[in-house]
């Protein structure tokens, strides 16, 4: 798992690459999010376009990340869901929890000015 961080205005985008599974990606995401929140970021987008697979631990970490960001007064949104991840979120009813977007432009604009 690799996570690259970039900013567009005040929106932090995390480009994630690789499988998000127990011990590979879940801790990395947790540490990255904790650092971003500590730095004061409130608008976060997880770009999952290059994540071919998420297991239950990875999914749990995405939910935990959402909770952590929300408790700090921030907003977490998901971008570029693969068919497999979209199906997983639909089955687990998490599609109703997360705001998801197909384009980066839509995701960034959704935070408003």
User: Given the helix and strand composition, which structural class is it?
Assistant: alpha/beta
Q: How many strands appear in the DSSP assignment?
A: 5
Largest β-sheet summary: 5 strands, mixed
Strand order of the largest sheet: 1-2-3-4-5
CATH class: Alpha Beta
Number of domains: 1
CATH architecture verdict: 2-Layer Sandwich
Which radius of gyration do the C-alpha atoms yield?
13 Å
User: CATH topology, anyone?
Assistant: Transcription Regulator spoIIAA
Give the SSE string: EEHEHEHEH
Catalogue the unreliable spans: none
In helices, the fraction of residues equals 25-40%
Q: Name the overall outline.
A: globular
Q: How much is the average pLDDT?
A: 93
- Proportion of residues in extended strands: 25-35%
Task: Please characterize this protein's 3D structure.
By secondary structure, the protein is an alpha/beta fold. The protein has a single domain, classed as STAS domain (Transcription Regulator spoIIAA, 2-Layer Sandwich), CATH 3.30.750.24. 39% of the residues lie in helices and 27% in strands. It contains four helices and five strands. The protein has helices at residues 26-38, 56-71, 83-91, 104-109; strands at 2-8, 11-17, 43-50, 75-79, 99-101. Strands 1-2-3-4-5 form a five-stranded mixed β-sheet. Helix 3 (83-91) links the parallel strand 4 (75-79) and strand 5. Helix 1 runs parallel beside helix 2 (56-71). The termini are far apart. 28% of the residues are buried. The model has no long low-confidence stretch (mean pLDDT 93).
């Amino acid at each position: 798992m690799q996570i690259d961080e970039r900013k567009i205005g005040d929106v932090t985008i995390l480009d994630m690459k690789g499988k998000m599974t127990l011990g590979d990606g879940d801790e990395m995401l947790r540490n990255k999010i904790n650092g971003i929140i500590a730095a004061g970021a409130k608008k976060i987008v997880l770009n999952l376009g290059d994540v071919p697979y998420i297991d239950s631990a990875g999914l749990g970490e995405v939910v935990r990340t959402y909770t952590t960001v929300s408790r700090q007064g921030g907003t977490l949104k998901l971008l570029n869901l693969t068919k497999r991840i979209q199906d997983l979120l639909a089955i687990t009813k998490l599609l109703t929890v997360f705001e998801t977007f197909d384009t980066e432009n839509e995701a960034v604009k959704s935070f408003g000015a």
